[in-house]
Design brief:
Radius of gyration: 26 Å
Helix content: 40-55%
Distance between the termini: 78 Å
Number of strands: 21
Strand order of the largest sheet: 1-5-7-8-9-10-11
Mean pLDDT: 95
Strand content: 5-15%
Low-confidence stretches: none
Length: 766
């Protein structure tokens, strides 16, 4: 009756950790206050899993910011700019790496594989010295043990840690971080030895990079890692956990062949081919398969009958004692507890399972697999599955027909982009290096209160509209004062860039407390797409039209694109994702055309999550990019040449999909650049020609640090080395929602001054 959970959400059912972190950062509470909230959350989670009957309960999956940053602290790989002098790494150095400080910018942040979670990228080089500098994993194991709960400590595996790292500043871009493996392993040996000394019998090492396309030399390094750990730290069982995709045949065979590895974790939800591979290759004596059959990345209730059939099939091939029922990955990527949802109707609620419910599913499957089936629970589950399959609220034949018909056209604008830009410039009359922002402005406590009270029917619609219009007026006035060239209305009416649209589209449902961590204290509440999607009425026209009436400068209409809405939602799993994306694209197309008709001549359709949905295996990427890019083009294929279409992307690696980005055929793209050491610019240095407008971000908005005018000007100069003057825009990396006005105003002042400075330099050079 063995059961296992890969990991669990950290924020708490009511985002307790978020509020504790932000209070600490604002100096409104102490470090001990923060530590108490964190300990209470950890203990509650361990008790919950213990009471449910989980056999292998994880520890050290809690983090104050990010598990990869925790690993950087563990091994003492602190970049020199943070002036760490050794010893146990505390909150000051830890949060400086995550968020930056007055002296130094934060470390790069990027997407965790194909999820909406972000990790802090390690910066390594030949000068990096590893030393055990955080005892967090050991202390949390001891903390659980004091409760009488035996746990499996979890660490990011050494192979994946180095694979996820990047060369430090000043180090050659070709530097191979895996070359540091010999100096890293003694630290892992030390921490595993300490855990063993405290009584740990198992340790979980997450090696998700094993599901990627690897070269033969990668497997040699991986073997070296686990042969070393097996030889140096005997007497503790090692579980190597993989997730997010099919495990390649060579990777699985490597794991099977390593004597030091006692457990192999595989994702049998996203890894559709892994089941056949496991059955074909088998599993030798002394090893256990941790079978990830409960989806850790979506909120749909498990089809228990199907999963039990799969598990029984596995047991028949491998042996009853060789299968542990598990989640497909950490439950970090799903909402916390369905019991906190009181407004979702009972039918739809019966189709769902959040993290707490998934723990129960894992235990129920483990019991059933060994002859202790809860018949009532399985019967209830079967009824919910049947209800969802047949429900008329899920299926709309008209929407399905429209979506199927659009596949017969490429939906391209007829006029080439360079000609469109010329026509647009005649109307917009923008200076060189036009300045803009990405969309949102700071969301103040007062603004959040107004939205909350309107949603709770505590203020009238008239009062709400008046308050939002006042906020828009404030944002417009500020942009006038700053002399920004293309305005935004600041999005004060929006709670979230996806939720706002989903609330107005058919086929979506929303939670009250379905929060999921994106990075640090930032949480999102993804909509649930349960049925066919369509747009009953205009969603943004009223606010954009009002904002444009306040200024003669161009006002961007702000929309979230279909691929981002898809990738940042919990998506129905009963049809291909591409079908759902096409339905959303048609809804956004209607909105784009209504904005244009209302006099909005610049429309931004954000595709922040385009890269995020890219499959991890190269063999599967082309198909995704075809339908994703096509979906974007559908949204704006019908507008006039004089209507300028922008898009925005953030915090991912884009260089390998730059040709697909060009194929989106947007007039202007703004894209994250500053926090990732301007990696985006390298692709243009390597000869890629980009004819449309482009605004690589000139400063990082995810840090409270305010960049100076000369720092921004220097970034613009670097951009002009590889991009034509006539296509370059000046803008921040991302929206300003999470920042305070005290940070935003001086940063934007410096940004505009930097653009003017470069304009003056260029004029004097003529």
């Amino acid at each position: 009756m063995a059961s296992h959970v890969v990991g669990y959400p950290r924020m708490g059912p009511k985002r307790e950790l978020k509020f504790a972190l932000e209070s600490f950062w604002d100096k409104k509470s102490s470090a001990s206050d923060l530590e108490k909230v964190a300990k209470d959350l950890r203990c509650s989670i361990w008790k919950q899993m213990s009471n449910a009957g989980i056999s292998y309960i994880p520890s050290n999956t809690f983090s104050y910011y990010d598990q990869v940053l925790d690993t950087t602290a563990l091994v003492g790989a602190v970049p020199p700019r943070y002036e760490w002098t050794g010893g146990e790494i505390g909150f000051d150095v830890y949060f400086s790496m995550a968020r930056g400080n007055t002296k130094s910018p934060a470390m790069e942040m990027t997407k965790w594989f194909d999820t909406n979670y972000h990790y802090i990228v390690p910066e390594l080089g030949p000068e990096t010295k590893f030393i055990l500098s955080s005892h967090k994993a050991i202390e949390e194991y001891k903390e659980a043990k004091e409760l009488g709960i035996e746990t499996v400590p979890v660490l990011v595996g050494p192979f994946s840690y180095l694979r996820l790292a990047k060369p430090a500043k000043g180090v050659e871009l070709t530097y191979n971080c895996l070359s540091l493996i010999d100096s890293l392993l003694p630290v892992y040996k030390e921490v595993v030895s300490k855990l063993k000394a405290e009584g740990a019998s198992w340790i979980q090492l997450d090696e998700p990079t094993l599901v990627l396309d690897l070269e033969p030399h990668h497997y040699e390094v991986f073997k070296k890692v686990y042969e070393y750990l097996g030889a140096e730290v005997g007497g503790i069982k090692i579980l190597v956990e993989t997730y997010f995709a099919d495990i390649p045949s060579e990777a699985y065979k490597t794991l099977v062949g390593l004597k030091s590895i006692s457990g192999i974790g595989v994702d049998l939800v996203r890894g559709k081919k892994t089941l056949d591979l496991v059955k074909e290759v088998g599993l030798p004596d002394g090893k256990v398969l941790f079978a990830g059959v409960v989806d850790g990345r979506n909120i749909w209730a498990n089809d228990l009958a199907d999963s039990l059939t799969l598990l029984k099939d596995l047991c028949s091939k491998l042996g009853d004692d060789k299968v542990v029922v598990s989640t497909s990955c950490s439950l970090l990527h799903t909402a916390v507890d369905l019991k906190n949802e009181t407004k979702i109707d009972e039918e739809l609620k019966s189709w769902l399972a959040f993290a707490a419910q998934k723990v129960v599913e894992v235990v129920a499957l483990a019991k059933a697999l060994h002859g202790n089936k809860d018949e009532a629970y399985f019967t209830q589950n079967a009824g919910a599955q049947a209800s969802r399959r047949s429900s008329p609220r899920v299926h709309n034949p008209i929407v399905q027909k429209l979506a199927s018909e659009i596949k017969n056209s490429e939906h391209r604008r007829v006029t080439p982009v360079m000609n469109r830009l010329e026509e647009q410039q005649k109307h917009l009359n923008l200076p060189i290096l036009p300045t803009t922002s990405i969309g949102s402005f700071p969301q103040t406590l007062e603004l959040r209160r107004v939205r909350r009270e309107f949603k709770g029917n505590k203020i009238s619609e008239e009062a709400y509209i008046k308050a939002i219009q006042a906020e828009i007026g404030k944002v417009v006035k500020l942009q006038e004062e700053l002399d920004i060239d293309v305005f935004v209305h600041g999005e004060p009416e929006r709670n979230d860039m996806v939720e706002y649209f989903g609330e107005q589209l058919k086929g979506f449902v929303f939670t009250e407390n379905g929060w999921v961590q994106s990075y640090g204290s930032r949480c999102v509440k993804p909509p649930i797409i349960y049925g066919d999607v369509n747009r009953p009425a205009a969603m943004t026209v009223f606010w954009s039209k009002y904002a444009q009436s306040l200024t003669k400068r161009p006002m961007k209409g702000m929309l979230t694109g279909p691929v981002t809405i898809l990738n940042w939602s919990f998506v129905r799993n009963d049809q291909p994702r591409s079908e759902t994306c096409y339905q959303i694209a048609l809804a956004i197309k209607d909105e784009v055309e209504d904005l244009e008709a209302a006099g909005i001549h610049v429309i931004q359709i954000d595709e922040a999550a385009l890269r995020e949905g890219l499959p991890l295996r190269k063999s599967e990427q082309a198909d995704y990019l075809i339908w994703a890019v096509h979906s974007f083009r559908i949204t704006n294929c019908g507008v006039k040449d004089t209507t300028q279409i922008h898009t925005h992307m953030c915090y991912s690696h884009f260089n390998d999909i730059i040709h697909s980005i060009i194929d989106m055929d947007a007039d202007v793209i703004t894209i994250e650049n500053s926090r990732s050491d301007e990696k985006l610019l390298r692709v243009f240095r390597e000869g890629v020609k980009y004819g449309a407008g482009i605004g690589p971000g000139v400063y990082d908005i995810h840090s409270p640090r305010i960049p100076g005018t000369e720092e921004i000007a220097d970034r613009i100069r670097k951009m002009l080395d590889v991009l034509e003057l006539k296509v370059l825009w000046v803008n921040p990396d991302c929206g300003l929602k999470t920042r305070k006005y005290a940070e935003v105003k001086p940063a934007l002042i410096n940004m505009v001054e930097a653009a003017k400075k470069i304009r003056a330099e260029l004029a004097s050079a003529k």
